[in-house]
Predict the 3D structure of the following.
Amino acid sequence: MSVRWCCAGRLSTAKTPRLFCSSSAWAGMTSVVSRTTVSCCDVPYLEERADLMETLELVHDGAVAIVRINRPPVNAVNRQMMIELQECFGVLGEDRTINAVVVSAAGSRAFSAGIDIKERVAGEDRHRSAVDLLDYGRYWRETQGVVRHCPVPVIAAVDGPAIGAGFGLVGVCDLIVASERASFVLSEIDIGLLGGSSKAMRMLGPYKARMMFLAGQPLDAHDLYRLGAVERVVPAGDAESSAVELGRLFAAKSPIALRLAKESMLRIEGMPVEDGYRVEQDYTTRLGGFNDSKEAMRAWLEKRPPVWTWS
């Protein structure tokens, strides 16, 4: 069950009871309207706004949303992609019907070859904005933050090289599914840039991260699997479908419990164990005030599937 609409404004459906759209669909509206999730809209409205999406495709598969990078030839990250990722995850994070998001990429040449160097060089002039002049990386940093703090689990489906900024995007996802042809590279040191080691150290540990960052040494999917960063290694071409399968596992959980669980993990990361557990107990208390918590207990005692009601 899926709906696909992409940057060209084309629409294809297969057993589709519902459509949703990215925040490009409400760009330019008033601030009140722009914070309302569009969970059901007519096709002409969707097609009218789809042309605004230049670098992404969206696919709706039940309670799993797929955000597919599509900027040939190698899905290099430019400013437009950053804007669209922020908008897209802003809407998905507020949509009650979405319980997991998969980030994948079109084509087989690369998940993403990193920052668009041509755009970066073209922007090196005296007409740059004050923000760009003083903090050029702010937009990409904020984009990664929006993805990382998406209220529902975000799964990276990597089916080719994830280089530089591509690796950074993978590093802010909650889980990684990688194919046999996936590779992970921090090549910044070879092209006059830096960045990405903060994710590498979380994913790989400080010593392997140093080899990756200081030497620009690539790692394959099996390397990251052995180190615990990759959840699954699958055949080439299967990363996205495997990630969607994993997303359905999350989608079956209480949407309230799922969101509170992710939020609590983000808050306690890096805390001392005792302090972190205290925060988790507060989240348990918050969850206990919802009917979904009581329903989970009743369903477990009665040995039946739970029925979630967003209450």
